[in-house]
Amino acid sequence: xxxxxxxxxxxxxxxxxxxxxxxxxxxxxxxxxxxxxxxxxxxxxxxxxxxxxxxxxxxxxxxxxxxxxxxxxxxxxxxxxxxxxxxxxxxxxxxxxxxxxxxxxxxxxxxxxxxxxxxxxxxxxxxxxxxxxxxxxxxxxxxxxxxxxxxxxxxxxxxxxxxxxxxxxxxxxxxxxxxxxxxxxxxxxxxxxxxxxxxxxxxxxxxxxxxxxxxxxxxxxxxxxxxxxxxxxxxxxxxxxxxxxxxxxxxxxxxxxxxxxxxxxxxxxxxx
Length: 272
Hints:
By secondary structure, the protein is of the alpha+beta class.
């Protein structure tokens, strides 16, 4: 009965983690570029109550007798499926169709990656116009440099091609590339990226190094869509169903604890 108490307790802890993950997904349902997470579980060690042996007649028993000792959270995986494209009135709103990520330089000098393309033009260190995210982190081009343009450019006239080239109209008002390209990068294992908040991801050994789409011909290049933002890929209906399942599993584990407690109370009362 002690085993049942501990097994049910691990189940309650695991379902609490599952509920926390679901709640975080629902909280970020309107976060641009957010990728949903899902909790994965695995069983704990098993205890042998009886090994494979033979009967009294010498016949072998086909199976042993084992009992599980509970469950634990094995991982929380990110789902990098494509989110829906949301129309935006901003000229610096960019959505990615494909597997690519935008690159940003953090305040600590480390390069971070995101699917959130809600950018803006800000005043740069050299008094030019620098493309940044909402927190002021510089957006990097395909060579890993911050995108900073002279102030002679009019921000509202800048446009973007599907392959990331920044264009400006000539005298005939035809958009012409100015030699700067927004960088897009892929990863061999995006699930290994480390979340650092604000829909930013950091490179890890599990994710592998960033693959520059502009210089690597072996990857399918992503498509950049100006005037749109990628919404989160959270499926509200699925999350609500998973929340109900999680709540019922939590209740069942709680019921197992109360049942074990009742059985132990009955056993203790036998001496009376």
